[in-house]
Design goal:
6 helices; alpha+beta
Length: about 325
């Protein structure tokens, strides 16, 4: 098994746009031929658009785009800009009189990072789609949907850390699989291979990790108002040939990667979601692909931590090393 670039998996294009002043952005995944896709949502507070398209019970068998963005529910209009760009290129589901691009979207909450009145919109979505086609620019770090990403927010923003977006991909024989993760969790982050904490809630003087699970165990009193500005978003990409029923299962297995790396995870205060897409026809065992999906997700989370730069007054792991 060898590491490859996330851009080497198949005919999928990735474009990113961010507003660094406002602390928000979006990451767009496009397959003009259409891609089979599934979704598994485990967090209790998702902000999403058109996700029912990915249910095995719905008719659509392929979609054309996925948008990961900041701005919470305010940022969901970014998909409209992606649709407009695809429509101009005559890409979409043929309905006779026109073609309708099928674009799904999930957003994280970054409104407390920069300017709460600025968030991804149709213009940003259109530009991210244009870049995906004309000048693919995916990078790990404070880019796209990871621009305003932070973690360790149990006790508020004053003790959190800056993270970003990260990717990791591998090849095993003919099988290629990778993941892109926009890391914006309530909880703390750990290296799944050795259990070492690498990011999360800090002590009051910001000199060390405080430990979110330990803080939560201090009291069993019902907290009526917790910090809700979270959500980790992921896209698994593989060249294995699966339809959306199997891809929904692979997305679910991918959540094992979240569970290994984020504590606590899948809370009512996160909208944790994972998409899984097939952009090839390689024959592979679904359970093996699911196992590898969890692993590339955990590695992408590490990349999202160590490629982030300190910003908006929040330290990154680079600053604390």
């Amino acid at each position: 098994m060898k590491e490859i670039s996330i851009n080497e998996i198949g005919p999928i294009r990735i474009g990113q746009v961010e507003d660094k002043t406002a602390g928000t952005g979006c990451t767009v995944f496009i397959c003009d031929e259409g891609m089979h896709a599934g979704l598994d949502v485990r967090g209790g507070g998702p902000a999403s658009r058109e996700t029912p398209l990915l249910s095995p019970l719905t008719a659509a068998q392929r979609i054309h785009g996925i948008v990961l963005a900041g701005g919470s529910a305010y940022g969901l209009s970014a998909a409209s800009g992606v649709m407009q760009y695809l429509r101009e290129r005559n890409i979409g589901f043929d309905v006779g009189v026109t073609k309708v691009p099928l674009v799904v979207q999930s957003d994280l909450f970054d409104l407390t990072v920069g300017d709460p009145d600025v968030y991804p919109d149709e213009v940003m979505g259109y530009e991210a789609a244009r870049r995906a086609f004309e000048e693919p620019n995916y990078k790990d770090g404070n880019y796209g949907a990871g621009c305003g990403a932070t973690v360790g927010k149990l006790c508020g923003m004053e003790r959190c850390m800056k993270t970003g977006i990260g990717s990791y991909a591998v090849q095993l024989g003919d099988l290629k699989i990778g993941a892109v993760i926009a890391l914006n969790a309530l909880g703390d982050i750990f290296d799944w291979k050795n259990g070492k904490q690498i990011a999360g809630m800090l002590t009051k003087d910001r000199s060390a990790f405080a430990g979110s699970p330990e803080e939560m165990r201090r009291s069993i009193e019902d907290v009526k108002k917790r910090f809700v500005e979270n959500t980790t978003l992921g896209v698994i990409i593989t060249n294995a040939g699966f339809h959306k029923g199997s891809l929904c299962k692979i997305a679910g297995l991918g959540h094992d990667g979240y569970a290994r790396s984020i504590r606590p995870v899948h809370t009512s205060l996160d909208g944790d979601s994972i998409y899984a897409v097939s952009v090839g026809d390689v024959t592979a065992d679904r359970e093996v692909v699911g196992l590898m999906a969890a692993e590339v997700i955990s590695e992408a989370i590490i990349r999202a931590v160590y490629n982030a730069e300190s910003a908006y007054g929040f330290p990154s792991a680079k600053e604390l090393i």
